[in-house]
Automatic annotation (TrEMBL):
Record protein name field: DUF6886 family protein
The organism of origin for this protein: Sphaerisporangium aureirubrum
A UniProt-annotated Pfam family: DUF6886
Length: 177
């Protein structure tokens, strides 16, 4: 589930949204109100139940072979997502939907590399939301290794000290350290 050229996506468990209005998220680190979306590169970051904590890692041009082997491991490709065992059932059963928007309604957000796209005006989807389907199958088809761990923090600590690219989403929902 990725956007077509000229589109961005918003993932939600709510299939009944007809208009997205900018808001300040409870966990926002900035005061501006936005509608959030992602491009094709970042769409896999959201192939999860909304509240599921996840640690994401991928190779970059500056990733060392030692870090790639140590953290991603042999045969694990260029990208890995990690979740906790307690989220497996939700991964199997969540009904996740993708809303498509015209990309020209959004601007890239994040530095030095954009990690999202934001709109400051209300936007309407291009059509009805699409069921995302089997989240495990999406990971497999994209060649993204999905690792299931008792807790995320040891993996997170290793990734953030490495030369890999990384992102953590909903980590406040992870098991305590």
């Amino acid at each position: 589930m990725r956007p077509e050229p000229g589109q961005v996506l918003h993932f939600s468990e709510d299939p009944a949204i007809t208009r997205f209005v900018p808001h300040v998220a409870a966990t926002a680190q900035q005061p501006e109100a936005y509608v959030w979306a992602v491009d094709a590169r970042r769409a896999p970051d959201y192939w999860f139940p909304r509240q599921c904590p996840r640690a994401l890692a991928w190779t970059t041009p500056s990733t060392t072979e030692a870090d790639r082997e140590r953290i991603l491991g042999p045969g694990c490709g260029e990208r890995m997502h990690a979740i906790e065992y307690r989220w497996l059932e939700a991964m199997r059963t969540v009904k996740l939907y993708a809303y498509r928007f015209p990309a020209d309604s959004f601007t890239p957000f994040g530095t030095p590399y954009p990690n999202a796209h934001v709109a400051t005006e209300p936007v309407e989807p291009l059509g009805p939301p699409e069921p995302v389907g089997d989240l495990f199958a999406l990971h497999e088809e994209a060649g993204i290794h999905l690792r299931v761990l008792p807790g995320l923090w040891p993996f997170w600590d290793a990734v953030t000290r490495s030369t890999l690219g990384w992102s953590g989403i909903r980590l406040r929902n992870a098991r305590p350290r």
